[in-house]
């Protein structure tokens, strides 16, 4: 939600490019996590959604870098959000590597 709020101040000419891209990728992280969690009865289906989410998190980080370099977002805000996505990525990798801790079908 913070990305959505910050991107409201991006220039109008970015509405259909950077603004749209950063919002879509950040939302996709959440929606892929939600979809994976709903599939936690089936380990393979659960794990399959998290690389998608990880990829969207990486895309979001790229768009954050563009926003900072284009001076649409201040460096401190960009750094903070980038670090949050680093933490999200670490959590996703942990879930991919240890699905038994997260799925309902325990061995």
Identify the CATH architecture.
Up-down Bundle
Q: Oligomerization state of this entry?
A: single chain
The major beta sheet can be summarized as: none
Cα(first) to Cα(last) distance is 37 Å
**And the CATH topology?**
de novo design (two linked rop proteins)
- Total individual domains: 1
Task: Tell me the radius of gyration.
Answer: 16 Å
Level of helix content? over 70%
Question: Beta-strand level of the residues, as a percent range?
Answer: under 5%
Count of helix runs:
4
- The CATH superfamily appears as 23S rRNA-intervening sequence
The residue ranges in which pLDDT falls below 50 over 5 or more consecutive positions are none
CATH class: Mainly Alpha
Strand-pairing-aware structural class:
mainly alpha
Compute the average pLDDT: 93
Which overall shape is indicated by the principal axes computed on the Cα atoms? elongated
Task: Let me know the number of strands.
Answer: 0
Molecular structure report:
The structure is a single chain. This protein is mainly α and 107 residues long. It has one domain: 23S rRNA-intervening sequence (de novo design (two linked rop proteins)). The chain contains 4 helices and no strands. Helix 2 packs antiparallel against helix 3 and helix 3 runs antiparallel to helix 4. The radius of gyration is 16 Å and the shape is elongated.
